[in-house]
Amino acid sequence: MSFLDHLEALRWHIIRSAIAVVVFTTIVFLSKDFLFHDLILGPSRNDFWTYRMMCKLGKLLNPDGPCAEQVNFIIQNRTMSGQLAMHISSSFIMGIVLTFPYLFWELWRFVKPGLYPHERQNSRGAVLFVSILFILGILFGYFVAAPLSINFLASYTVDASIENQIDLQSYISTLTTMTLSCGFVFELPMIVFFLAKAGLITPEIMQVYRKHAIVVILVIAAVITPPDISSQIIVTIPVVLLYELSIRIARAVRRNDTARLNKELTNS
């Protein structure tokens, strides 16, 4: 294919992806009650699933003790078009999240024809695994990282006389940043897989720089979480586990590549 033919193919992939995003965004926009009351504003209420599980865990550890500190703040809108703007932007973000597997599939369809047969063989299931890791990251961010951050920030005060009245935009920004960050951070194993296939990283390098990687992970966790050590640790632990999993993935990639080269040499 010529350069213009590649651009034409890419254009249609982008058009189909844009249509999918618009469709899902429209569906989410029309589901306003579920989007805001149940989904977005869920972590702002004391009956949210995470807070109830924290309460049950606290009762198991100390039956006579109180539950964890409950969220207690007011969400308000200060601009005339604030709620409408948040409705549109939140629907768009949710539309992208829902269509992420399809968006990656369209990207994969564009890249796949340029791969060698053995590269296509080794990359089977890439769309499935990328989608699963993204969904797991989103769920972890929404049910674990974001509620803990919101709970900490909402309950933190410098003086008891100051009431926390959180702007709607600030609340949604915190929720979406935490959730999406976890979704993309959970893609670490697939990133390592493709880097290992390209020969840009090896399991030995990852093992040598393990301590450095943990420091980087701690820094990333500090950036995407509030200044609360417990939230940072909760985000750091699964990412460190994913890093260890990535080392094994890189080792498996090299083992498979070595076996394939030996087979080709034997056949030749």
TrEMBL record:
Membrane topology summary: Multi-pass membrane protein
Keyword flag tRNA processing: no
A Pfam family per the record: TatC
Top-level taxon of origin: Bacteria
Localization annotation: Cell membrane; Membrane
Protein's UniProt keywords contain Iron: no
Ranges annotated as spanning the membrane: 12-31, 84-105, 126-150, 170-196, 208-225, 231-250
Keyword terms of this UniProt record: Cell membrane, Membrane, Protein transport, Translocation, Transmembrane, Transmembrane helix, Transport
Self-association and partners: Forms a complex with TatA.
Family listed: Belongs to the TatC family.
Function noted in UniProt: Part of the twin-arginine translocation (Tat) system that transports large folded proteins containing a characteristic twin-arginine motif in their signal peptide across membranes.
Protein name per the record: Sec-independent protein translocase protein TatC
Organism (species): Hymenobacter saemangeumensis
